[in-house]
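Incident review: delayed structure delivery

Summary: a single-chain prediction request sat in the queue longer than the usual turnaround. Root cause was a stuck worker, restarted by the on-call engineer. No data loss occurred. The affected request and its eventual output are reproduced below so the record is complete for anyone auditing the incident later.

Affected input:
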Amino acid sequence: MGASGLWVRTAHTALSGGLALGLFLHRTDFQKQEERGELLQPLIFVLLVLCSVLLYFKVSLMDPGFVKAEEEAKAGKSEEQSMVIAQVPTHIKMRRCGYCMVKQPMRAKHCQLCQHCVRRYDHHCPWIENCVGENNHPLFIVYLSVQLIVLLWGGHVAWSGLYFEQSWDWLQHNIFLLMSFLLIVIFTIVVLLLLMSHLYLISCNTTTWEFMSPHRISYLRHSELENPFDQGVVLNFWKFFCSCHLTTWEKIYFHRNDEPV
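Output delivered after worker restart:
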């Protein structure tokens, strides 16, 4: 873990904990429920915050799908792991990465920040200080969904504690809650837009990188289809969330491009 990654993860944890704590220290619905002995909703909220933080660390620290060198893959691959590693047909030639010199499967891209090639590369996310790739992309979507629920609920609770008066005393006592509410609104908009855009891309079976730079990607420029990996919305979602093994995208690409148009 680099210094920047440590700083970002510490900031995320502190911000999540600080915003949640502020909702309990001010006169919000949570504080009123605690006084009445109704602890179920506050407890569920705290558990959701903890769940979002744990998901954040899981997504940010896990292998996003780094492409290993052939000799490392063969040496470190157990019999059980070999069942989930995508096998590229021998007649299909794979290009070598110009940076790390590994054989690069289709839809993989070298990340300059991680200094690795990443399978089904989507983007490098500065907030998690990690790439989003084939391994951690589904969990990234789960994290965004949980985070959105926490933010929407937190925004509602923060609003319940705000009552507006034109006085300096009111501002002094409520500045933290007001700032918390504004931050929650900003984060909610960002997370909502990010989640919606990713769900759209998943429904099309494309990635952020492919969507933004199709003219720079050889397998998209040379394809007879606009999106050679699109297999329909239902199948795209099923394979994204429910597939227990890595996908050999070369098979889908060449099969679909051989279909009559």
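Verification: The mean pLDDT is 87.
Action items: add queue-age alerting; document worker restart procedure.
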